[in-house]
Structures are given as C-alpha cells and as structure tokens.
Here is the input.
Amino acid sequence: MFDQMDNEKLFAIKLADNEKTIRDKSISQLRNYIRSRCITEKSPFSEEDLIKLWKGLHYCMWMCDKPLVQEELNDKICNLMDCFNNNNKQVILFVKVYFMTIIREWIGIDKWRMDKFMMLVRSIIRKIFGYLNSKKWDKVLIKKFNKMMLELPLNINDDRIPDGITYHITDLYIEELAKFGDNIKPVRAVKMLLPFFKLMAISKKPQFVMHLKKRLFEQIIECSDVGIEPEVEEEMAEIKAFGLQLCEEEDTSEYNIKFNYKLIADKLFKVGNSQECLQRNKKLIFDLVKKFRALMKGVYPIDDFNLPNLDKDDERTKPNLALLKKKADRIDLKNLNKKNKKNKAKKNK
Here is the structure.
C-alpha cells in the first residue's frame, strides 16, 4: 500500500502515528526531505503537497501531550521554515498552507488541546517575522505577507474564518513584532500594520473593531516613546507593555520598537475617508487619528482634553466631504448610464 503513495502522504501518515518514536523520526526525515527538494528550484512544493504535510504536522501536535515535549515539537515544526533554502515563494506558501490548515481544523480542537495550538500560531508568526527580519524587511515580501494575512487568518468578515484565530493574532501581533524592533525602521513597522488599517474600516463586527483599537493601536500608544506628564505618571504605572498576553514574570524592557506616528495617523485618516469604510467604524478611527496626531506632536494622549481638534486643524485633517460627494455622484451617473443603455437595448429588440 505504501509503495503506491506519494512522499507527502506517507509523511502525513507517519507524522500522525501513535508511537512517539515514529513521529520524532518522521520530523527529522521531513527536514532532510524539504532540504533536498529545495536545493534547486526545479521541484518546488505545490500547495497540494504542503496541505498533506501540514495535515500530518497538525495531528503530530495533536498527539503530543506533555508541555515540555509540546514546546520542543513546536520549535521543530517552526524550524522547518529554515529548510526552504531562503526561497521566498515557498516560505510564504508554507505559512499560507499552515493557516489554511488551522482554519480548517480549528473547530475540532477541544479545550484541553487549544493552548498548544494557540502556542503554535504565536510561534509561526514569530518565525515569519524572523524570516522577514533576515530579508531586511523587504517591501515586496511584506506586501505578499500582508496579502496572505488579509485573505486568511485576518479575514474577519469571512464566516469560514474562526474569530478565535483573528482575535488571537490581533493580541500577539505587536508583542512579537516588538522582539525585532531594533532591526526594523519606523516606516517599515507601519507597513507591517497595513492589514489592520483595512480591518478597522471594513470589519462588520463592532466588537472586533473595538478589540482591535484597544489591543493593537492603543498598545502602540501606551508603549510609545513620548513622555508622560509627571502628574499623570502614576495613572499609567499599571500599564503592561504590549498587552495582557505577556507573562507576569517576562522582562519586556529589552523589547523596543518605534513607529512613524504621523504615517499611522495618515493611514488611519485615509481609510476613515475611504468609500469602503463603514459609517459606524469612522468614530473609532478618527478617535485614533487624534491620538496619533497628538503623539506626533510630542503630546501623550491621556484623555480628550489634550488631543488636537480635527475640526480646528488644517484643511488636510478634515474629511474631504466634497470629494466623497463628487465620487458618489460619479458612481450614480455611471449606474444611470448603464441603466439607460440596457433600456435602449431592450427597445431595439
């Protein structure tokens, strides 16, 4: 039976074997197999090949019980990314198929196994950040990564994507990105946030927009390098660096990431004025715009009293209602012309 199977399917069966020794041996063999396939670009992995491999890796983690053994396996799975001979397409495809797999299998994960699979999500995100860091945060590679993230784990409006995955990635994203803060420039750091700007505009779930605002954008504000006034410093003493996901005993002082606050404000302002932005999301978006404009001016946005007033600011900060109306009229006119053409075609018949 095994002689008629392709290598990927055979690996999937062995990775999900009941015997730990067979699973461990299969992981080691898989590393060598991936390396051998990626020495040249003549026989790259297809999406179908990786779907089979990730099915086996998923159930390899499923069968793993003890916490320390789970962490060891978690590292081995993530380190498979190093075996693709720095082939950008293959690495992105490997991560893409991982998210396809976890999205498909998420509903079947019970509460006793959920922690280890959430750990694997975090580790995959950290590993791909490490890969991007090794590529000096290449713009083209970041663009491909962002596109993949929006299509799969961060596609909040797609009912096929479990909300738990999207929320979990939102919670850990800044924490993991901050670990590479010394090597990423502020402008590139903002590029890594592009999917979340779009999510703020298009999400149909108000609770997620609020969550995104608090757990991602406001975390950036709370951990910014802008000084806090002495009289309110005590109020901020309880704020934990980079969210609640960090362990109590973990030292976060070594993590340092800087963002271009002006660029964040401009990006948020742009999506807030876009036609695809839902009306109910605009208030939260423009509230963030105010806060990041305050940071840009060296003012820590403790409350609404020290925020710049967008209505009294320069014309560039105001929503361009005239332009939006003009675009809407143009679309209405275009639709009307199409309707008239259809009516004429019917009369001619």
In short: Residues 2-265 form one domain.
